[in-house]
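Lecture 7 notes: from sequence to structure.
We start with the chain below.
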Amino acid sequence: MAEESRKRYKIICPYCGRVQYACKSIFHEMGIYDAGNGSCLDCKKPMSLAYNPETDTMQADKWELVHNEKM
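Predicted structure tokens for the same chain:
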């Protein structure tokens, strides 16, 4: 029941452009705003999800772009 009341954020798959919705991850809730991840419901490719607390929005980026930059 708690899952149904969580706020959902509109994201757009960076691979196929499908609009979908995601909730904040436990890392987002802990203040680690660039530590979310998920897979597109359509093309199944992995996405990195970053929450922006200043604008209360979420951004989806290509997994390999985000994680290769950090290495």
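Points to note: Helices lie at 26-29, 63-69. The longest strand covers residues 46-52.
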